[in-house]
Amino acid sequence: MPACPQTQSRVFLRRWLAGTFLQEQKEMLLEHSREVQQRSARVEQIVCDTEPRTKHELSLYVHVSNISWKLQGAESRIAGTLCSPGKKDVRSIDLDPAGKSQFDIINSIWALMD
């Protein structure tokens, strides 16, 4: 028994709308992908621009303060080495910041520098 013309036109309309919908979704996802790639490229450029400057600033800080920070394996501690070339002295910095204010921590480091 053949389907009535109304039923056939509804099926066709559904298929057409589904195809259009899927095409729109595809185009929207492609546009989103392009935007993400552009953002990624901008972030990469920012990193490339700022990394050398940051390394230079950190190197300058180490040179001026004579503090070399221990950054690996001391997530819960403030650790490093303080060198006093004039006094020919090397001191270890190993502080537990728990329960101390930033002010107290900085004063402890200054005390080691004197």
From TrEMBL:
Q: Which protein are we looking at?
A: Kinetochore protein Spc24
Give the organism, scientific name: Coccomyxa viridis
